[in-house]
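job 3f2a | input accepted
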Amino acid sequence: MRLRDRVAMVTGGGRGIGRAIAICMAREGAHVVIPDVNLAGAKAVAGEVQKLGRRSLALKADVTSEKSVKAMVAKALKAVDSEVQDKIFRNMSKRAATLLKEDMDYMGPVRLKDVEEAQQRIVSIIRKLEEQGEIVVARAGEDELVV
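job 3f2a | predicted structure (147 res):
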């Protein structure tokens, strides 16, 4: 299993080629995040991934305002374990990490629905940055995955 315990994000994974890629990545050992405009399709594929013994998260992805990025990231990070949070914070300046932690503390408990919506907005921003050439997201079949 080349992707054992890695996390892959397959945009448009709710049907067609995206579905096939998501299933393939799960068979290779990856946990799969499936953002798609069709949430029902994404949930169906997430169920298939889970039947393969991998974790999966279906998200409804849409285009949103970048002004909400800060709150969105804070919400999204509230739902992940401390190991993932630490990885994110280590890749930020100390000042930015401190401000984000303060935002997370300030907002208190959040509903799971709000966290999922925030995660969806992150996916949209990643797509936009990729289209602008600001980041590179490798796809299946390439040596490395940036997710």
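job 3f2a | Residues 63-69, 142-147 have pLDDT under 50 and may be disordered.
job 3f2a | closed
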